[in-house]
Write a structure and sequence with these properties.
The chain is of the alpha+beta class. It has 3 domains: 120 residues, Orthogonal Bundle (Butyryl-Coa Dehydrogenase, subunit A, domain 1); 101 residues, Beta Barrel (Butyryl-CoA Dehydrogenase, subunit A, domain 2); 142 residues, Butyryl-CoA Dehydrogenase, subunit A, domain 3 (Up-down Bundle). It is built from 11 helices and 9 strands. Strands 2-3-7-6 form a 4-stranded antiparallel beta sheet, with helices on one face.
Length: 391
């Protein structure tokens, strides 16, 4: 048997990465191998997120990584993407924690908050001493956030919030929630608020019986006559473009993250099929096994190089929302296909926790949906290409 080529070799992107980006990737990869992979299976089965990882992520500079200043690492978006991929090599739930903390909660404060809000929250969040969540989706309003029912009524310098949010990562452990609410009739009236844990009328609740993202906190938020002040409103968040700008930023990290899940599943199925013997030979020697693995590897290389290219555009502030939709749609579909194909090629063993590919598949069913469903991103692309909106 000849030397087996690994996916990093096949991608050939090492000469295109900076020294800092390689260091970030290798540091997070080593941490995942030593701290995360040995326990993730048990955490997933017991519906548990290991909070001990939070200070370790902070120590590596992953939390708030691309943000400049305020105790954040200020690394390139490519370096952050590589970190997300290494984290999701372990589990999508762990990467979701990183994404929500960094690309949604911290980004919202950095992009739309006042200087006082940035100084109060960002250093603590970068250090893992304050956890954030992002309250946009509602029980009956997901793909159409402009129709949200949560309301904020103003009386002088005071605001009163009422409503509920659903499918909120980190909800149960968040020290601060970014909550979006209507202050009038249309989408232009949407404003963003910073709501601290312990505020009267504000509560988080579990979502029971999850079959996906089991090693992740996922909850709902309820707001009943929550009293805030003008100092709690993010002054630069005006209209729907506020939360959509946050989602666009988060989708980039999601698209990079699923490359890690894809790589895990491809590596695991190669390992399995070269060890598993039937009819006197490894099943990897069979054409019907090699063909789907080759297809997945080809698609992985294409997705990785596209991610790198788009990451460079993002660092140059040239990446468009349509390109982000394309990247999220492409990479998430690949990751789910890789997990499902790996499960199929591994036969009955593929359904067991021992091999982890079905755990990834279960998680990726959620990743395909959140931060914009595949159908919504399809329509975003369709509108951009044809000029016709089909939402």
């Amino acid at each position: 048997m000849g030397r087996k080529l690994n996916l990093d070799d096949l991608t050939g992107w090492l000469p295109q990465l900076t020294e800092e980006e390689i260091t970030v990737r290798d540091t997070v990869r080593k941490w995942v191998a030593m701290s995360c992979l040995p326990r993730i299976r048990d955490d997933f089965e017991h519906h548990r997120f290991h909070t001990g990882w939070i200070p370790e992520l902070a120590a590596m500079g992953v939390l708030g990584a691309p943000i400049q200043g305020y105790g954040c690492a200020g690394i390139s978006n490519v370096a952050y993407g590589l970190a997300c991929a290494e984290v999701e090599y372990c589990d999508s739930g762990l990467r979701s924690f990183v994404s929500v903390q960094t690309s949604l909660a911290m980004f919202a404060i950095w992009k739309y908050g006042s200087e006082a809000q940035k100084q109060k929250w960002l250093p603590k969040m970068a250090a893992g001493k304050a956890i954030g969540c992002f309250g946009l989706t509602e029980p009956n309003h997901g793909s159409d956030p402009g129709s949200m029912k949560t309301r904020a009524e103003q009386d002088g310098d005071a605001w009163t919030l009422n409503g509920s949010k659903m499918w909120i990562t980190n909800a149960q452990v968040a020290d601060v929630a970014i909550v979006w609410a209507h202050t009038g009739g249309g989408a232009d009236s949407i404003r963003g608020f910073i709501v601290e844990k312990g505020t009267p009328g504000f509560a988080a609740h579990d979502i029971p019986h999850k079959l996906s993202m089991r090693a992740s906190f996922t909850g709902s938020l309820s707001l009943q006559d929550v009293k805030l002040t003008e100092a709690d409103r993010m002054p630069l968040a005006q209209g729907l473009k506020g939360p959509l700008g946050c989602l666009d930023n988060a989708r980039f990290g999601v698209a990079w993250g699923v490359l890690g899940a894809t790589r895990f599943c491809i590596e695991r199925v190669i390992e399995y099929t070269t060890d598993r013997e039937q009819f006197g030979v490894p099943i990897a020697a069979k054409q019907l096994v090699q063909a789907p693995i080759a297809d997945l590897a080809s698609r992985y290389v294409q997705a990785a190089l596209l991610s790198l290219h788009y990451g460079r555009l993002k660092d140059e502030k040239k990446l468009t929302p349509v390109q982000v939709s394309l990247l999220k749609r492409n990479n998430c579909r690949l990751a789910l296909d890789a997990a499902r194909t790996a499960r199929e090629l591994m036969g009955a063993n593929g359904i067991t926790g021992e091999y982890d590919v079905l755990r990834h598949a279960n998680n990726l069913e959620s990743v395909l949906t959140y931060e914009g469903t595949e159908q919504i991103h399809t329509l975003v692309l369709g509108r951009a290409l044809t000029g016709e909106a089909a939402f």
